[in-house]
Design the sequence.
């Protein structure tokens, strides 16, 4: 495994957060036109959400280069059965630069984010998985849920 370190992202990392989000969608086959349309709104979101701690991101670095990242969105949410918090946590935007895949970055990022959620009192954390990411998430204990979606 390559040497890398994990750090929490700061507002100065907005560009890399946008690049990772677009890279993740590019890997899923989203068109360049759609990616171009997403870029501005994604940048605006991260510019507001990172300083407000509504999006907590972690980055893996190798020799000063960001090689992977992922984040936790904190969603204002009513208390529910077994969890009286007024928010929930969801992991998203997992992305590793292609030449660093399969070297443990994604696993370490996920372990870091899961630990962050535990430390901050979350009883569950959710994510949406691509086919490529699913084996990693399942190996960390993630299970399918009963969520349904209607495209409007």
Sequence:
């Amino acid at each position: 495994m390559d040497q890398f370190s994990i750090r929490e992202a700061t507002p100065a990392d907005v560009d890399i957060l946008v690049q990772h989000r677009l890279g993740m969608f590019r890997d899923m086959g989203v068109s360049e036109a759609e990616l171009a349309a997403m870029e501005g709104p994604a940048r605006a979101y991260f510019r507001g959400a990172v300083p407000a701690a509504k999006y907590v991101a972690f980055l893996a670095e190798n020799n000063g280069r960001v090689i992977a990242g992922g984040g936790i969105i904190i969603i204002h949410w009513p208390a529910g059965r077994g969890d009286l918090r007024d928010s929930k946590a969801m992991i998203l935007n997992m992305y590793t630069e292609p030449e660093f895949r399969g070297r443990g970055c994604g696993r370490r990022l996920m372990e870091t984010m899961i630990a962050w959620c535990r430390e901050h009192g979350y009883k569950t954390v959710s994510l949406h998985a691509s086919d490529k990411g699913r084996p990693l998430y399942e190996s960390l204990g993630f299970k399918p849920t009963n969520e349904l979606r209607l495209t409007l």
